[in-house]
Design brief:
There is one protein chain. The chain is an alpha/beta fold and 474 residues long. The chain has a single domain, classed as Amidase signature (AS) enzymes (Alpha-Beta Complex), CATH 3.90.1300. Helices cover 38% and strands 13% of the residues. The protein has 15 helices and eleven strands. An eleven-stranded mixed beta sheet has the order 1-3-2-4-6-5-10-11-9-7-8, sandwiched between helices. β2, α4 and β3 form a beta-alpha-beta unit. The longest helix has 22 residues.
Amino acid sequence: MSQWLPIADIAARVNAGELQAVDLVAKALATIGEKAEYQAIITTLDTLAAARAKEVDATVAAGQPAGRLAGVPFIAKDNFLVFGSDTTAASNILKGFTAPYQSTAINRLEAEGAICVAKANLDAFAHGSSTENSDFFTTKNPHDIDRVPGGSSGGSAAAVMLDMAPFALGTDTGGSVRLPASFCGAVGYKPTYGLVSRSGVVAMASSTDVVGPLTRTVDDAALILDVMSGVDVLDSTTIPRDSAGYVGLEGSLVGKKVGIIKEYMSEGLDPGVKACIEAAIARMKAAGAEVVEVSLPTLPAALAVYYIICPAEVSSNLARYDGQKYGYSTANPADLEDSYSRTRDEAFGDEAKRRIMIGTYVLSSGYYDAYYKKAQTVRTKLINEFNTVFEQVDLLIGPTAPEIAFKLGANSDDPLKMYLTDIMTVAVNLAGLPAVSIPAGTSEGMPVGLQLIAPQRADRRLLDAAQAVEGILA
């Protein structure tokens, strides 16, 4: 059980003067300190958070409402710019970089009274599935300190399950919110592409990056999405929010037609994970859902497509880190070219270099048509298959990951095996669909995540179903 109340309850009590924001911030920071061995946090924002808490309490004392998230502490993945704090994306090339402005997502949360207390660890530039690619340290799984928490938002998921804060922010480019949610036993929500602004978030792969919350319950995730979502003039890819919003869910499966993804329930799926998913499906049927098996024939190609398109966009987005305007810069370069090459060689980690080289290769003359253009064609085919399937069913379900959290170091020397961890999450990003991972039991004492997927812009439908499934699995 969490030591935190539901987020809406915390805010209601702060607004009523029953709880003090300064006490909530102190509690969050104390828990972070007590559980430092898990290495979930890169930096704490003690002074900034305390000042914000005093402002919230002063607003309440003056008889004014302090917002829907009044006094609620939260943790941001360290690729979100938070004004006045360091933002490193867990990379040496940004070590010591202080954010000159703030991300839209953080602005919207703070406007409703939420307080950022810390920045969470991640795989450097969000490149990874375990947080072992962080240039600083590896976060440990809250359930087993010898296992990974997943990635790239591993620090955010671990922080929530360690009770460091009621919610945390992550980014999901190929599964980076849902995978750590599955490995740590959290709720991880990936919205429809463009529903939450990415302004002020360090870019990874711009055609699949989304911002999403990590929480303990679907209700909490829905509230955070409701606050963050909507059009932002600073991000031209943003889309309008649902006119009904994302709170006040019905939480019913009656009359819902749900498709089990055949390709996700086949060979390669850990038996313990499969048993949890099948048990969840049985309960969904008992709760009134009509469950059928569906197939997306192009799905097995999704991972290959992703690891062509994603590095191509990574290589472009990382070109800005050259040591000239901000971030790390090599000492005493011979000339400008030497400064570029040595800065990037010294400060980029192995995974960043790997993705830059793969991405540059697939975009280069003579290989663009063979790789990048072909991958985009297959991506379109995959999107069309999802659209066709969603004409037959309301939702899709399957495991979030093929296995439970693996041991620290188990896949470190095998990049391909590490990439395969994302095999059940990347297709959703390629198609821009909303998806959520919710806890579905345990295998070998470790959490297993159930993934629910909906059509584009059907986020309310997805959250409604997720709340219902959460209720029957509790």
